[in-house]
């Protein structure tokens, strides 16, 4: 499983350094339950299909997504608005798209357009029942953190 997760860690680190000038500290990955309700305010979801299926989800608190959007757009946001939603969608799109390249030795994948879920205590309903959900915590911008969750299951016969 680690060989599938490592490209996501590397891409996250590169993405945050390149686009917002922030260094990430990677926490210890863990397995999450399929119906876990989380503490995050917003999540961006990208589906994976092809020789494997699953999803990539980035989840964070409202303050962090607003700060990141401000840094990316050189504007000031007071709340989650259309530009903030677009920013987290673009972040997950960049991460999934670049990690897909790192996984091409193992699978040919197609990624979906991002879907945004918001609201305190929201839950992600994962698209498959077999794959384990690996959550990778990242610390960023002093005391903020976010989670990147990845579930990849090879398609039988691929």
Q: Mind explaining what this structure looks like?
A:
With 158 residues, the protein is an alpha+beta fold. It has a single domain, classed as CheC-like (Chemotaxis protein chec). Helix content is 33%, strand content 31%. It has 3 helices and 8 strands, in the order H-E-E-E-E-H-H-E-E-E-E. Helix 1 crosses helix 3 and helix 2 packs across helix 3. The longest helix has 21 residues. The mean pLDDT is 86.
Structural class: alpha+beta
Query: How many domain modules?
Result: 1
- Give the C-alpha Rg: 15 Å
Largest sheet features: 8 strands, antiparallel
The CATH superfamily bears the name CheC-like
CATH topology description:
Chemotaxis protein chec
Helical proportion, percent range: 25-40%
**What is the level-2 CATH architecture name?**
3-Layer(aba) Sandwich
DSSP strand tally? 8
H/E series:
HEEEEHHEEEE
Average pLDDT metric: 86
CATH uppermost class:
Alpha Beta
- The percentage of residues in β strands lies in 25-35%
N-to-C span: 17 Å
Approximate shape? globular
Number of helical runs?
Answer: 3
């Amino acid at each position: 499983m680690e060989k599938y997760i490592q490209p996501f860690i590397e891409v996250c680190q590169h993405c945050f350094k390149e686009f917002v000038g922030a260094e990430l500290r990677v926490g210890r990955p863990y397995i999450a339950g399929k119906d876990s309700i989380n503490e995050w305010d917003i999540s961006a979801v990208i589906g994976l299909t092809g020789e494997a299926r699953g999803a990539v989800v980035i989840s964070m608190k409202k303050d962090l997504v607003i700060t990141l959007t401000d840094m990316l757009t050189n504007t000031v946001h007071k709340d989650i608005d259309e530009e903030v939603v677009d920013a987290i969608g673009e972040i997950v799109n960049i991460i999934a798209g670049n990690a897909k390249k790192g996984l091409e030795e193992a699978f040919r994948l197609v990624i979906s357009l991002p879907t945004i879920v918001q609201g305190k205590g929201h839950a992600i309903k994962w698209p498959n029942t077999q794959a384990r959900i690996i959550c990778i915590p990242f610390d960023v911008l002093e005391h903020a953190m976010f989670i990147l969750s990845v579930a990849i299951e090879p398609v039988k016969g691929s």
